[in-house]
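Input.
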Amino acid sequence: MNQTDLAFSSALTQAQLISSRQLSPLELVELYLQRIEQLDSQLGSYFTVMAESAIADARAKTEVLANSRAQLPPFFGVPIAIKDLNSVAGVRCTYGSPALMENIATYDDGVVTRLKQAGFIILGKTATSELGSFPYTEPLGFPPTRNPWNLDYTAGGSSGGSAAAVAAGLCAVAQGSDGGGSVRGPAFCCGLVGIKPSRGRVSYAPVGDRLSGIPAIGALARNVADAAAMLDVMAGYVTGDPYWLPAPETSFLSAASRTPKPLKIAFSTSIPPLGEAENQCSQAVLDTVKVLAELGHSVEASCPDFTGLTEPFTAVWQAGVAYSGIPKEVLQPMNQWLYEQTGSAGDYLRAVSQMQVIARKIVAFFDTIDVLVLPTYMHPTIRVGEWANLSPQETFEKIINWVAPCPPFNATGQCAIALPAGFDSIGLPIGIQLIGHPAAETTIISLAAQLEAAKPWNQYRPKFAV
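Output.
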């Protein structure tokens, strides 16, 4: 296997090569650090490259490999990247804000602890939009994160750095978070698999989620099995979590190798009340549904009504900007505007209640179906800086009309997985999402793997990265 093929090999393959002593963790880390040095100045996927600590960890793991035959953790020696909304002890955590350039984390987030315990080596902290507020990654004080398929276009947000790094072969898999599409959207932009798990599946320990259960910590990968295996090691209750789920009966990775039973699947190319997705995004759904029907599933055109959700969801979301404690005057204009719109504590609680009432109706739609297929986003990927000269209000309206298929399932807490579904007219990736019942990750992972086998996409690589 040549060096480029190795960089683009799956995390599970890399783990197997390491455990069989065909590859050392040090060789793999050095390969990725070399690729980061060569490519990331143009891509902007990493805020912080942890070269020194990654090499030290890789050397220690390589030594263990040479001198021990003990059973290894599942991802022993495999490099990974962590989104810069999550803390890694001793490493700066900026949240995409220049005001926090010198903010050094004093603890590991719970998900980081689990990833370390699984044997991963952290290469660095990936770029995020300011406070995770935007579906593109262009924070002040940092270079914009660009799409490896076309550097003039965004990699998405807020997990744009994680998606760009995985798509460009600058790490095997990456952690992200999704408070309104922030894993699924970058997966759409960069041609990746992105899992947003159900509420309570992955802990936010040792802190809270801050937004009444809207966000979820997820996985970005180049194939379904890697994303599923990564969810296996991230998932689980930590003492004191406000939400929790029982462990699945079988692992998420095993679900990726299991053919699902015939399912009842609903689909829509229209998002009520906003209307129809752009033709290329609609066609991706229709093409996917055709394959699902050929695979023996029952399909019907149907969709929940999301009317009334935007206003309370926005009220909850904008409170997170005020909660950050960052002075309003140093925030980007749209975050300043959101900060100014923040209401009272009573307004917030009223919005939470309204959001939960609507969420109940959305989840009830799934009483008669197993999975819903929707566009991930309403139109193809935008250029870097495309909305930079708009007013905050205009920008916010553009965002709502782009990401509309994603936030409803943050409100409900349901699981969703974004999948590549080909390319648009200018060669950028395009995709769809599968939404399942609450806590039904195994169902959507099995279905996603079946689609992946029927229409493989992992053979494609951005020319920039090869």
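The chain is about 40% helix and 15% strand.
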